[in-house]
Design a protein that fits this description.
By secondary structure, this protein is mostly helical. It has helices at 12-33, 38-59, 64-84, 86-108. Helix content is 81%, strand content 0%. The radius of gyration is 18 Å and the shape is globular. The termini are far apart.
Length: 109
């Protein structure tokens, strides 16, 4: 998804869907290529994909209070995803950096 131009706005549900797609791809990568705990990956996956789902539920809210509540839940899930996101990324970066160094060291031989 590209950034909106002047006068152009992206729907938050579209942005949440794109976020969920990126989270799924990251979690698949982490499962295969990192030492990140499955429980952390699962938490990240659940939180990151539930943001858009809760926004959709809010759209179909049965009352203004229900609408507000579902949006608040979505915001909390986004916060949880934000909390977990740096942890696996940092571990993946450390592993990538270590693999890169190992590759460079083995090429010196």
């Amino acid at each position: 998804m590209s950034e909106p131009g002047p006068g152009q706005v992206f729907d938050i549900r579209d942005r949440a869907f794109e976020f969920a797609v990126r989270i799924v791809k990251l979690c698949k990568y982490l499962e295969k290529n990192s030492g990140v705990s499955r429980s952390v990956i699962s938490q990240l996956l659940r939180a990151g994909t539930s943001v858009g789902a809760n926004l959709e539920e809010a759209r179909a809210g049965q009352s203004p209070a229900d609408f507000i509540h579902k949006n608040a839940v979505s915001l909390k899930e986004a916060g949880e995803a934000h909390y977990w996101l740096p942890k696996p990324r940092m571990k993946a970066l450390r592993m990538e950096s270590a693999n890169s160094k190992m590759s460079r060291w083995s090429s010196v031989r």
